[in-house]
């Protein structure tokens, strides 16, 4: 598992947005071979979505051949409700992209048969060949999607009762009123996420620091369902400094040192092949930023500040 630690929310958003962009560009999706992307709701990915929208607007990235699946949806909340994940994703992402509406997949929390809706969702994922990259978010108790503590780590898409802690955490989106938060949700399962060929989890904020420590330093445990990422061959967590509060200092230093080596290898001693950085020994260690993928300077104000650090950019001395 890789743990990338950035300074703050903006840097995390910037890093993840560039990562998604590079993965899609590298994949070179076509109509017959689309890129399949899993996406979360919640406040964690909003900054990333703003950047993806910007990439799309400036022509650096197209979602024409991207198929998306969102992680979850409340049960019984009308789609047009401002806090449904349907409204959320349209507002923060889809309306800004060139993605064909038929490529957007969301769970319907108002389907007449919720179990059938969940089966349909899993079948659709399988039908398009599985998910290439699942980007996710977690709750303060370490739940991934809405897989609350105690969820089976082999779970698939299904109806879940929300934990009281999640209801309290999400009350901020419902006028702070716990009674307005739906008590049930449809969610992809832990195994649905972990079946993706790559998993990238965004974790930001001190309130998620205990969950991050459990996920990184303790064993795989159904009480912290995101910990299943330890078993994934290509698991990535991107967090900010605040979220590392409960990690051991040596853990933080360890992962930072790995990223440091990673950066220096990207800049100097490696061959770049079709967007992948190949180490001298032949292992794929990262992805480069293709030279033609240069942003319009007026669009890159916040990018310029992090040029040295971002794995997806080639170092300036190149
Ligand atoms: O990013 P936030 O606002 O903490 O919300 C996290 C919530 O969003 C989700 O990512 C839902 O997609 C859940 O995993 C979690 O409950």
What does this entry show, briefly?
The chain has 318 residues and is α/β, with parallel strands linked by helices.
Give structural notes.
It is a single chain. This protein is an alpha/beta fold. The chain has one domain: Rossmann fold (3-Layer(aba) Sandwich), CATH 3.40.50.1360. 31% of the residues lie in helices and 17% in strands. It is built from nine helices and 13 strands. It has a seven-stranded parallel β-sheet. A three-stranded antiparallel β-sheet has the order 4-8-7. The chain has a three-stranded antiparallel β-sheet with strand order 11-12-13, covered by helices on one side. α1 packs across α2. The longest helix has 19 residues. The chain is globular and about 55 Å long. The two termini are 28 Å apart. The C terminus is likely disordered. Bound molecules: 6-O-phosphono-beta-D-fructofuranose. 6-O-phosphono-beta-D-fructofuranose binds next to loops. Belongs to the glucosamine/galactosamine-6-phosphate isomerase family. InterPro entries: Glc/Gal-6P_isomerase, Glucosamine6P_isomerase, Glucosamine6P_isomerase_CS, NagB/RpiA_transferase-like. Pfam families: Glucosamine_iso. Its EC number is 3.5.99.6. It catalyses: alpha-D-glucosamine 6-phosphate + H2O = beta-D-fructose 6-phosphate + NH4(+).
The proportion of residues in beta strands is 15-25%
Helicity, as a percent range: 25-40%
Q: How many helices does DSSP assign?
A: 9
Uncertain spans:
269-285, 287-318
Please report the first level of CATH classification, the CATH class: Alpha Beta
Largest sheet: 7 strands, parallel
Number of strands: 13
Name the helix and strand elements from N-terminus to C-terminus, one letter apiece. Answer: EHEHEEHEHEEHEHEHEHEEEH
Question: What would the average pLDDT be, to the nearest integer?
Answer: 87
Give me the secondary-structure category: alpha/beta
Q: Main sheet: which strands, in order across?
A: 1-10-9-6-2-3-5
How many structural domains can be distinguished in the coordinates? Answer: 1
Which small-molecule ligands are present, each listed once?
6-O-phosphono-beta-D-fructofuranose
- As a whole number of angstroms, the C-alpha radius of gyration is 19 Å
Indicate the CATH architecture. Answer: 3-Layer(aba) Sandwich
The CATH topology corresponds to Rossmann fold
N- and C-termini, Cα separation? 28 Å
- Counting copies of identical and different chains, the oligomeric state is single chain
Globally, the shape reads globular
């Amino acid at each position: 598992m890789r743990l990338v630690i950035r300074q703050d929310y903006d840097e995390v958003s910037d890093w993840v947005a560039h990562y998604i962009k590079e993965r899609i560009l590298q994949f070179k999706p076509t109509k017959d071979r689309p890129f399949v992307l899993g996406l979360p709701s919640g406040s964690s990915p909003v900054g990333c979505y703003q950047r993806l929208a910007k990439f799309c607007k400036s022509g650096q990235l197209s979602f024409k051949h991207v198929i998306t699946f969102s992680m979850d949806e409340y049960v019984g909340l009308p789609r047009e409700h401002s806090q449904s994940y349907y409204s959320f994703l349209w507002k923060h992402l889809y309306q800004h992209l060139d993605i064909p509406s038929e490529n957007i997949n969301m769970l319907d929390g108002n389907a007449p048969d919720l179990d059938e809706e969940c089966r349909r969702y899993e079948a659709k994922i399988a039908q398009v060949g599985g998910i290439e990259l699942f980007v996710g978010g977690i709750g303060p108790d370490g739940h991934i999607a809405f897989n609350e503590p105690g969820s089976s780590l082999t779970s698939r898409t299904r109806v879940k009762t929300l934990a009281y802690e999640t209801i309290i955490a999400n009350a901020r989106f419902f006028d702070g009123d716990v009674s307005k938060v739906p008590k049930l949700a449809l969610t992809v399962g832990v195994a649905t996420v972990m079946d993706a060929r790559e998993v990238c989890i965004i974790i930001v904020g001190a309130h998620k620091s205990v969950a991050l420590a459990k996920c990184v330093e303790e064993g795989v445990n159904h009480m912290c369902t995101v910990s299943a990422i330890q078993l994934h061959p290509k698991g990535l967590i991107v967090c900010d400094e605040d979220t590392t509060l409960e990690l051991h200092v040596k853990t933080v230093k360890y992962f930072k040192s790995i990223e440091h080596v990673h950066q220096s290898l990207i800049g100097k001693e490696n061959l770049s092949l079709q967007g992948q950085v190949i180490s001298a020994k032949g292992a794929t260690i990262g992805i480069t930023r293709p030279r033609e993928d240069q942003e319009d300077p007026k669009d890159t104000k916040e990018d310029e500040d992090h040029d040295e650090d971002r794995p997806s950019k080639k170092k300036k001395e190149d």
